[in-house]
Amino acid sequence: MYTINVAEKTWLTNCTDNDDAYKNDYRCKAIYYARTTSAVLSVLGCCLVLFIIIVYKKYRHFTQRLVMYLLLPTFVISGVSVYPNISNTSVSCEVAGFFMNWGILSQRLIILCIVVHLLVFTFRQRRPASLELMFHIVIWGFSLCFSIIPIFGHHYGSAGVWCWIKGTNLKEEGLRFGCFYIWVWCCILVEIVCFGLVVARVQEQLKMLQGNPDALQLKEQYKKYIYPLLLYPLVNFILAIPVTANRIQNWIDKENPVFELFLLHSIVYPIWGFCNAMMYFMSKETILQLHPCNVWEQLISCQGSSSQSPQVSNVQQRPNIDFNYAGNILANPSTLNSATVESGSDME
């Protein structure tokens, strides 16, 4: 039978098999504390972004909901990464392995959906009404399906310095590829293609308007609505590089794990939530919303609105949704002189 054997005296074996290794091996300590620190920062980042989205009711806008959906698997990954005993092979480690696989697949699929949304919007100038429902079906259905498969046969467990698909035999190696690697990298490849198409389309539109006074305002609209979302796939692709490098090295030469790669892997994969928070708060307007006075004012405003009659409340809070406006900008740039993108627009 095909088996994967890690040399008994490697530091990785000590970290995996010895509960007291953190007290005896600096490499085990470094990996554990680096991973825990990244995970805590990620959890805090997720909570902060979610707080702003809820308090300022940004969830009414589609792109803000996409960011909110991204927080769920990111929070789960970070929470699992804080799991205190990485050498545990009990049921709790199997559960942690399941959530790790589900979280990363879901996260990757949501980022893909963000890029697809930008692609559809830049080419068709509007979002199909059924797009969000389709995203939900693909993201949660697909990730759940391929995360359930390794449960049969108890293939989740201790996998190096974390809990995941164990990889102790050929079948489990196949499960890693079939339930994780293939889909993650398919998503990344599609994201790269879509990313390039979106950037090319934006540049094409700006080139068509060269010399037109409306070009500057159109560029500002792209800067506000398109470019920030493009950061999510770009940053997550960069973060995937050290993780993939460690996976490949570990797959090629299992008996000689590289400490530096494992350390980078441990820092990078739980920190996605923190990086997403940094991207979310890049705009000056969003940073100002963090000010305690602004938060308190918004909470008072929400409380006052909820105390009014339902009829008045509905009139005041109903967003002015203009799904066609952003398309009109591309089709007829002169409309920039007579209108602005409403707060409830498709790209808000």
What would the keywords be for this entry?
2% strand, 15 helices, 70% helix, 2 strands, single chain, disordered N terminus, two-stranded antiparallel ribbon, globular, disordered C terminus, mainly alpha, 348 residues
Please give a structural write-up.
It is built from 15 helices and two strands. The radius of gyration is 23 Å and the shape is globular. α3 (26-55) packs parallel to α10 and α5 packs antiparallel against α6. It has helices at residues 11-17, 21-24, 26-55, 62-81, 91-124, 131-148, 170-208, 214-225, 227-252, 259-268, 272-280, 284-288, 292-306, 310-317, 325-331; strands at 156-159, 162-165. Helices cover 70% and strands 2% of the residues. With 348 residues, the protein is an all-alpha fold. It has a two-stranded antiparallel sheet.
Instruction: Summarize model confidence as the mean pLDDT.
Output: 79
Give the DSSP E fraction (strand runs of 2 or more residues): under 5%
Fraction of helical residues? over 70%
Count of strand segments = 2
User: Alpha-carbon distance between the termini?
Assistant: 56 Å
What does the radius of gyration come to? 23 Å
Overall geometric form: globular
**Spatial strand sequence of the major β-sheet:** 1-2
Structural class category: mainly alpha
Unreliable runs: 1-8, 309-347
Q: DSSP helix count?
A: 15
What pattern of helices and strands is seen along the backbone? Answer: HHHHHHEEHHHHHHHHH
Give the biggest sheet: 2 strands, antiparallel
